[in-house]
Amino acid sequence: MTTLDVQGLVQLERAVLDDSVSLASALRRCLMLGAYAHHQELREWALKELDGYAADDDLPSYRQVPAALEIDGNVHDYTGITQFSGRRIAAQQLPQHAQDRGIGENVPIHWGVKVLEAWVAQEDKVLRLSPPGAAEYTLMMTVQQRQRGNSGSEITSLHWDVAKPSIEGVLDRIRTRLTQFVAEVRAAMPPGQQNPDPSQINSAAQQALNITGGDNSTFNITAPNAKADRGGTASANVNEPAPATPQPWWHRTSVIWTAVAAFAAIAGVVATVAVAK
């Protein structure tokens, strides 16, 4: 590694300590600091937090947040259509394929921090995020209900109910780790040194972010999980591939569907999904 001093620490320090500065701006400064230090792994981490993680990326633990699974739907009978919204279900009531994919009561937060900051700025207290393959799963759930004799039941949405504080917790943990990174760099610098050198950047990244530098090295990010509270509404869709061939699934548990009277089978089945804002 070169022993030349690295620029940009002061700007990054100011950004992470000022809550009025967006986290996206602070991460861009971290990205430039990693460039000055020729630290590829630090740049990659900052870029993933900025642009978002791919569907097949290993997410940091702080980007997995708890949330309730809920469904919306309609019940058709001779009196008309009765709608219901936000009916909670257990993960065991999902189609088997969804369970096999690991869809449950934890939400992977793949989006970049700019999107997360925009969600937090909304007035809604709750976000409705659709799991991958939600359209197919709602169709399967509707078909199974009709096979069980509930010909008037139609499920129109499957989504996670994510409290806004959970998203705020993700952003806070990223900012805290950036702050810890700056603190580790400062601690490694002797009195009188104005800018860190690449070795100090590497040591701080390893201590604060569990990032190991060097050619062809890998990195991991560790942090505690966020806590969820319940709260309002917005919607988005997890950008992952749709599921393969569906399989039968419905197990009789706490959610019991009722249809008031015999109703002629509806010719078409409509499945709708909450779409990302």
Q: Would you write up a description of this structure?
A:
The protein has a domain at 9-61 and 167-209. Helix content is 36%, strand content 16%. The protein has helices spanning 9-17, 23-36, 40-51, 96-100, 113-121, 134-147, 164-188, 198-209, and strands spanning 64-66, 68-77, 80-89, 106-108, 126-130, 153-163, 235-237. The chain has a five-stranded mixed beta sheet with strand order 3-2-6-5-7. It has a two-stranded antiparallel sheet with strand order 1-4. Strand 2 (68-77) and strand 3 (80-89) form a beta hairpin. Helix 1 (9-17) runs antiparallel to helix 7 (164-188) and helix 5 (113-121) packs across helix 7. The longest helix is centred in the middle third of the chain and has 25 residues, at 164-188. The chain is elongated and about 80 Å long. The two termini are 44 Å apart. Residues 213-232 and 239-277 have low confidence and may be disordered.
Key terms:
single chain; 277 residues; alpha+beta; five-stranded mixed β-sheet; two-stranded antiparallel ribbon; 8 helices; 7 strands; 36% helix; 16% strand; disordered C terminus
Short synopsis of the structure:
The protein is an alpha+beta fold and 277 residues long. It has helices spanning 9-17, 23-36, 40-51, 96-100, 113-121, 134-147, 164-188, 198-209; strands spanning 64-66, 68-77, 80-89, 106-108, 126-130, 153-163, 235-237.
